[in-house]
Design goal:
The protein is α/β, with parallel strands linked by helices and 651 residues long. The protein folds into two domains: 231 residues, no CATH class; 349 residues, Type I PLP-dependent aspartate aminotransferase-like (Major domain) (Aspartate Aminotransferase, domain 2). Helix content is 44%, strand content 10%. It contains 21 helices and 15 strands. The strands form four sheets. Strands 1-9-8-7-6-2-3 form a seven-stranded mixed beta sheet, sandwiched between helices. A four-stranded antiparallel beta sheet has the order 10-11-13-12. A two-stranded antiparallel ribbon has the order 4-5. Helix 5 packs across helix 7, helix 5 runs parallel beside helix 10 and helix 17 runs parallel beside helix 21. The longest helix has 25 residues. It is globular. The two termini are 38 Å apart. The N terminus is likely disordered. Bound molecules: pyridoxal-5'-phosphate (PLP). The site of pyridoxal-5'-phosphate (PLP) has 13 residues, from helix 5.
Length: 651
């Protein structure tokens, strides 16, 4: 038992997570080892059974040859060096790690990935991955179900999702798809396709809703199928010549003077992948308009104002990004209000896609799903927590089903190995516009057709060759732990509860240390990320407060020059910028900390704060009645008092 106050658990512990991870102590080592050996042997039998009549190509005595021995010893030496070097890795598995968005890996995913690796499937197409491409498409449908999207491949408007290297590339895919869909009706008009009821002008064509755009696309596909083969080729070419993907942004917008290069709207909290995406797409960062927030959640009033201004100026908008779990603060944008603002804007003739960047928070959606896939009420969800989910957070998750596309990272709250991001769009038919081959004539009439189409996955995705093992990991994990509250949901449940305990403990901590530091959780956590702002008592200078928090953070950050064991806890750091906070929040937060905002200058334009990602499921150890949250705050208190005394002695 530690010197720290023992944590008394008030309820029976949840055993459902016991077999999920290798564990902080490697508790499940024999389970993983057994599975790995079993499936490695299985793989070897598979090799031998391919053509058992082929004799071994490597001589049975090869292992005695000096060259073999020399190679083996070089290999072993390098592997030992690697293994030794890796001991400096960040201990993501430990409940003492509450820094970045990383934790232990789910055993089913880890085992599935390791067992698939020697088969080395390439999910670029079924030719290179007869098994794992299907698993990737399945994983997309599993995620679609979690979000509330249609997920039955027999339904024409079924969703579609695929994996990416991460959230960054998934966000890029969202931009590509939205642009393709927006520009396509303009191309149909320019090509002069007869018989279709096309929008009257380019502005209207560029401002169709996604549903109307997809209806037009399918009408065009049906029209095309009815033509003679020669006419089909002619019309396909004609339309293809007018498409933005063919002409490029410069020629496309030069040819359509009624249209301006569209903006992308995102809250100031948006991840920097959006800036990368706009650069990559050639739209330019000038086209990324960052919207103000209220408590780091997108301010719907500001969005509505921006939309009115754009409608007045005939400034088109490609998409509005809402963030479900901001990278720095874990805050959740009011997705329902974003959709309402879009509906309002739609009536003014200005339409755009709504994409949700749920790279971080996506898997929290499992908490809101019954086993049958239906939505749980706020009351049902709230029964497990003190505050979560606030009405705003519940409304945001409930609104996911109405959005156009979503980014989710299995390698974040899905507890799977890097690199596994995912892009999911609500209606898969739009994906035809991303195909490298213009295969418009496809119609998914059966689930088989749907699968057959996406087996040539490379057609539709930004990447080419890609890991089939990663797809196996995601799909198998979702099968072992279905994406609803009764299965996968146990995991985010543990983390949200930990965040609530952390928040409560932080508030007590602020009182306990009120004689030497002002401490404040700047935003009540929407989920499982909690920040802590600190300022030594008596200080009003932002520079000094930042120096203080930086030196605290120095003891919490990864230091490859120190033995790992000297670290007590790992945390991370972020900043609060008044230009991001807005005047009201700046006054509230800086005021509560007794900091003088007139001392903000270009060198010291932001406040450094601690950031804690509470995704480790073992933060509260019911077995030994230990709360690593309590221990963390005890540690932080000791450090703060030590820093405080050091400063006093200097003074
Ligand atoms: C992590 C994150 C990303 C980027 O995802 P990667 O997997 O690191 O590429 C994008 N958006 C949000 C909100 C994130 O948290």
């Amino acid at each position: 038992m530690s010197a720290a106050r023992p944590f008394i658990s008030s309820e029976p512990r949840d055993h459902t997570l016991d077999a999920c991870f290798l564990g902080p102590y490697g508790e499940n080592d024999t389970l993983l080892e057994k599975m790995l050996v079993e499936f490695l042997r299985d793989h070897v039998y598979w090799r031998r059974n391919f053509h058992p009549e082929d004799p071994p190509a490597i001589a049975t005595g090869a292992a005695h040859h000096p060259d073999y021995i020399a190679f083996e010893s070089r290999m072993r030496r390098e592997l030992h060096l690697l293994s030794a070097a890796l001991k400096k890795s960040v201990p993501f598995h430990s409940p003492r790690y509450i820094g970045h968005m990383a934790s232990d890996l789910l055993l089913p995913g880890l085992a599935a990935q390791m067992l698939t690796l020697p088969y080395n499937p390439n999910n670029v197409s079924e030719d290179a991955a007869p098994v794992t491409v299907d698993m990737e498409v399945q994983a997309g449908l599993q995620l679609a179900r979690m979000l509330g999207y249609p997920h039955d491949p027999a339904v024409p408007a079924c969703a579609f999702g695929h994996l990416t290297s991460g959230g960054t590339v998934a966000n890029y895919q969202a931009l590509r798809l939205a642009l393709a869909l927006k520009a396509f009706p303009v191309a149909l008009r320019a090509a002069g396709v007869p018989d279709l009821s096309l929008p009257e002008d380019d502005w209207r064509a560029f401002n169709l809703s996604q549903a109307d755009g997809i209806a037009l696309l399918t009408a065009w596909q049906s029209w095309l199928v009815a033509q003679t083969p020669a006419e089909q080729t002619r019309w396909l070419q004609r339309v293809e010549h007018e498409r933005i993907e063919q002409r490029g942004l410069v020629a496309f917008f030069a040819a359509h003077r009624q249209l301006q290069v569209p903006l992308v709207l995102a809250p100031v909290t948006a991840h920097y992948s959006w800036s990368k995406g706009l650069k990559l797409l050639g739209l330019g960062r000038d086209q990324l308009e960052l919207l103000p927030t209220e408590g780091m959640r997108m301010d719907p009033a500001a969005l509505r104002e921006t939309l009115q201004r754009c409608a007045r100026n005939r400034q088109s908008i490609l998409m509005c990004v809402a963030v479900l779990g901001s990278t720095e603060y874990g805050t959740i944008d009011p997705i329902d209000a974003v959709l309402a603002a879009r509906n309002e804007s739609r009536r003014r003739g200005l339409d755009f896609a709504v994409h949700v960047d749920a790279a971080w928070g996506g898997y929290l959606a499992t908490l809101f799903r019954h086993e049958d896939g239906s939505l749980r009420s706020r009351k049902q969800v709230a029964a497990d927590y003190m505050v979560f989910p606030t009405p705003g957070v519940h409304a945001a998750f409930a609104a996911l089903a109405e959005t156009d596309s979503v980014t989710v990272d299995p390698h974040k709250l899905g507890y799977l190995p890097y690199g596994s991001g995912a892009f999911i769009c609500r209606d898969h038919r739009a994906m035809a516009l991303l195909a490298e081959r213009a295969d418009y004539v496809f119609h998914a009439a059966t689930p088989g057709d749907y699968l057959a189409r996406y087996r040539s996955l490379g057609q539709f995705i930004p990447e080419g060759s890609k890991s089939g093992a990663a797809a196996a990991a995601v799909c198998v994990t979702h099968k072992v732990l279905p994406l609803d509250h009764a299965h996968f949901g146990h995991l985010p449940r543990a983390t949200v509860r930990a965040a609530e305990a952390f928040h409560a403990r932080a508030q007590r901590f602020a009182l306990e240390l009120s004689d030497c530091v002002k401490a404040l959780v700047p935003f009540a956590p929407d989920s499982n990320l909690v920040c802590l702002a600190l300022n030594p008592c008596g200080n009003t200078s932002i520079a000094s407060a930042n120096a203080f928090v930086r030196s605290l953070h120095d003891t919490l950050r990864c230091d490859p020059h120190q033995p790992l064991q000297t670290k007590e806890f790992f945390g991370s750091m972020t900043t609060l910028r008044p230009d991001m906070l807005g005047p009201a929040q700046t006054t509230r937060i800086f005021g509560a900390l007794n900091l003088d905002t007139s001392m903000l200058d270009p060198d010291e334009d932001r406040l450094v704060i601690l950031r804690h990602t509470l995704m480790n499921p073992f933060l509260i150890d019911h077995e030994n009645d230990i709360s690593y949250i309590d221990r963390y705050f005890d540690f932080l208190g000791r450090r703060i008092r030590a820093l405080h005394e050091a400063a006093d002695n200097k003074a």
